Amino acid sequence: MTNPTTLYTERLQRLEAARDQLDQRSRRIGNLNLLLFVVAFAVLALAAFRSEVLLVVLALLISGVFVGGLVALNRTNHLLQTTLTRITLNQRGLARIRREWRLLPVYDATGDPAVADDGASLQQIDAATAADLDLIGHASLEQLLSTPNTPVGKATLRRWILNPAPPTIIHERQQSCAELAPQVAFREDVALSGLLLEAGNQEERY
User: Fold this and answer.
1) Using CA atoms, how far apart are residues 88 and 124, in angstroms rounded to an integer?
2) Average model confidence (pLDDT) for the chain?
3) What pTM value is reported for the model?
4) What is the mean pLDDT of residues 127-156?
5) How far apart are the first and last CA of the chain?
6) Which of 50, 51, 91, 161 has its CA 20 to 30 A from that of 74?
7) pLDDT tens for each residue of 64-95
8) Cβ atoms of residues 191 and 147 within 8 Å
9) How far apart (Å, rounded) are the C-alpha atoms in residues 39 and 59?
10) Which residues contact 151 (CB under 8 A, 6 or more apart)?
11) Cα 78 vs. chain centroid, distance in angstroms?
12) Distances, alpha carbon 170 to alpha carbons 65, 96, 119, 124, in Å
């Protein structure tokens, strides 16, 4: 299996190259759309002044191209945002290996309804003890394993940490981890979906 540091570094290089290409494409399409808008407006104004049907048709054609450009710009920006999110995920992967805690998210369960729904009141290890043992909080086991990106996923991770499982369950989880470990692309896709979903939910809230 490829060294994790090498793997994440190579993926970051490819993603950063793709980001630069998408950024340039977005700028070009944006500039073209601006030019098309100005030209369409000028032609339409000239058509109104001269009352020429051909100029009106030309303005409509240019407007159609402008609308197509807007669609292309939207798609490009969506790809760019997705690529930026993938870059963040790979940067966090490297940060976990290097223990760069400032680059890793810290889960704050305060006011999170998912925690209450997940039976946090039944936890076997209280929050104060867990913090003393570096199970939760800054530079903790939870922060090191902070791959979940949805409230339910984060609450589940915290529940598993604060509620030690029987050996059989632990063995099953270890088998699942071993199976998923080499599937970097799949794990990245799942994490990406969670981040984009949570970002969409936050936009709806505000």
Assistant:
1) 34
2) 88
3) 0.84
4) 90
5) 44
6) 91
7) 999 999 999 999 999 999 999 999 999 999 99
8) yes
9) 8
10) 112, 113, 114, 198
11) 11
12) 58, 22, 20, 16
Which sign does the torsion angle of CA 202, 117, 194, 156 carry? positive
Q: What's the sign of the alpha-carbon dihedral 59, 65, 71, 73?
A: negative
d(CA 140, CA 136): 5
**Percent helix / strand / coil, the chain, rounded to 5:** 80, 0, 20
SS3 178: helix
pLDDT tens figures, 25-45: 999 999 999 999 999 999 988
Residue with tokens 């030019």: 35
Closest-CA residue to 96 (of 104, 88, 107): 104
